[in-house]
């Protein structure tokens, strides 16, 4: 394999995994390594700078084959590198870490905006308001932890600054016959369809459970699709 030729050595970083107290390191392209780690379709040999498993990259000392066999059950460098990439740590550049933190922060902001509402107005908070509150309290974002798993901690930290409530609604929508067929996928994509009924005149009546924060956006989509020719009403609200 020749993937190592495509890696810029000067910009490469260390991937590291400890097995039974022993350290195993590889030299990798930071961006491709994180793409691989996040499940993107990237070949291991495109990630590695060199097809070598090191005891310590800084000393360039390679791990003996018998130690590789003992720790991993194989001496195949690419299989071992795959395990290190999936289970180990990737040393990020400062710029890469900053970009990943920013991306994760934006994911969390979007989740809060879509799922949460201002209980004083029953409308979603603008994303910028949530972002400002997060910046003001100085939340810590972990670029390696799923946005969903970090959301509760962050919501608790910003609640003193902005009122937040997480609520589901069940919205009943009636679509006239000329738009019914093409609209069904849009209706289903908004949340969980709890009731579906084709009426005698060919209209489609659907009740969809969704996050309250996405309701306005959803209604606007339906309005655009039907040129405003539809009916909708909230038939249930419940805390999420």
Task: Please give a quick description of this structure.
The chain has 240 residues and is an alpha+beta fold. The chain has helices spanning 30-37, 44-47, 65-72, 77-87, 94-115, 127-137, 147-158, 177-189, 215-226; strands spanning 13-19, 22-28, 54-56, 61-62, 89-90, 116-117, 165-175, 192-198, 204-211, 231-239.
General description of the model:
- By secondary structure, the chain is of the alpha+beta class.
- The chain has three domains: 3-90, 2-Layer Sandwich (Hypothetical 12.0 Kda Protein In Nam8-gar1 Intergenic Region, Chain: A); 94-163, Arc Repressor Mutant, subunit A (Orthogonal Bundle), CATH 1.10.10; 167-239, Alpha-Beta Plaits, CATH 3.30.70.
- It contains nine helices and ten strands.
- The chain has helices at residues 30-37, 44-47, 65-72, 77-87, 94-115, 127-137, 147-158, 177-189, 215-226; strands spanning 13-19, 22-28, 54-56, 61-62, 89-90, 116-117, 165-175, 192-198, 204-211, 231-239.
- Strands 6, 7, 8, 9 and 10 form a five-stranded antiparallel sheet that branches. It has a three-stranded antiparallel sheet with strand order 2-1-5. Strands 3-4 form a two-stranded antiparallel sheet.
- Strand 8 (192-198) and strand 9 (204-211) form a beta hairpin.
- Helix 5 packs across helix 6 and helix 8 (177-189) packs antiparallel against helix 9.
- It is elongated, with a radius of gyration of 25 Å.
- The mean pLDDT is 89.
